[in-house]
Amino acid sequence: MRDLFSLTDEQRRMRDLVRTLARARIAPRAAEVDETEAYPADQLRLLGEQGLMGLYIPEAFGGSEMGALAFCLAVEEIAWACASTGVLYLVQYAGGFPIVAAGTEAQKRHYLPRLASGEITAAFSVSEPGAGSDVASLSTTAVRRGDRYLLNGTKMWVTNGSHAGVLTLFATVDRGRGKHGVTAFLVEPGFPGFAVGKLERKLGIRGSPTVAIHLTDCEVPVENRLGAEGEGFRLALRALDGSRPAVGAQAVGIAQAALDAAVAYAKTRQQFGQAIAAFQGVQFMLADMAMHVHGARLMVHHAAALLDQGAPRGALEASLAKCFAADAAMKVATDAVQVFGGYGYTREYPVERFMRDAKVTQIYEGTNQIQRVVVARELLRA
């Protein structure tokens, strides 16, 4: 039932490999990762050893160049097993794709092979204390001084920011120019003036570190500017259009895990002399959950396939998929808790973790309210 979209043999083999690894090696540690807020470095290393960290990276730079749909298939399977590992995996696209899209040959050769192998991981840093959904209002500044840019400011909500070997980070060269001043930089944690700040204590995806980054006259070589000055806003939107289906895939993985758990529990939990799955009220809940999961998966696959084809309307389809899948995951996970009853509210079973993990998919990569703004804008523009 989960092969709902026409996949190539190569895509299916890759998905099956990830599914096997995720269920055998990643899922057994998911509760521990959540409980201890432990960084799953061994799981990311495993994915790198299997050649799965470079699905979006061209073959010339060590990747397999399988595209957005293949990447979403992998994200879903990993998120089914562990949402924390899933978000750490998918942020590699957000942080690394801008290098694929706009990097110089030297930048690509320096970073992409190491990202593809899993030697280093990436992060994507746009948000600030006063700039979340409003990317154009960045206050982190970048001033050129000879062969260096000096970056000053504070970035927030940086997923993997404390472990990344390279951060695709956005600052402005001129606040007066609004979005036309936003510029992208490839920042390494060893650059002078770079410091990791507060580690957030989160509701869900607790094995995925989310940190602040403080830049104090942070010295970034000119050759680490990504694209030209003022091209960062467009590049950030392009990266988000690509990563939003992947967030949708993460949501689908969480929702599928919640549905699977609810179905299994409903068949074994006895009340009034029979399994609760025999009651129509429970059956209808499970049916609605399945419709949301399958519908969300199809939307994610459709958006990803359009990206692979280079089709127009990418922003519309990406936002539709991310928004619908995230809302679906939250509903399905919440209903799974309800199916489990009082047990679902305890940590004895995983559905409470699924509900906590699902919530963030409605918030990051652009809140679902922002996705609705994008959808409406694209519809009216068309």
Question: How is this structure best described in words?
Answer:
This protein has 382 residues and is α+β, with helices and mostly antiparallel strands. It has helices spanning 9-26, 30-36, 41-49, 68-81, 83-102, 105-117, 232-268, 280-309, 314-340, 351-359, 368-381, and strands at residues 122-125, 141-145, 148-159, 166-172, 182-187, 194-199, 210-221, 225-226, 270-271, 274-275. Helix 9 (314-340) packs antiparallel against helix 10 (351-359).
Give the helix/strand class: alpha+beta
In round numbers, the mean pLDDT is 95
Please give the alpha-carbon distance between the first and last residues: 35 Å
Overall morphology? globular
Supply database-style keywords.
single chain; 382 residues; alpha+beta; 4-stranded mixed sheet; 4-stranded antiparallel sheet; 10 strands
Helix-strand blueprint:
Layout: H1 9-26, H2 30-36, H3 41-49, H4 68-81, H5 83-102, H6 105-117, E1 122-125, E2 141-145, E3 148-159, E4 166-172, E5 182-187, E6 194-199, E7 210-221, E8 225-226, H7 232-268, E9 270-271, E10 274-275, H8 280-309, H9 314-340, H10 351-359, H11 368-381
Parallel strand pairs: 1-4
Antiparallel strand pairs: 2-3, 3-7, 4-5, 5-8, 6-7, 9-10
Helix pairs in contact: 1-4, 4-5, 4-7, 4-8, 5-6, 5-7, 7-8, 7-9, 7-10, 8-9, 9-10, 9-11
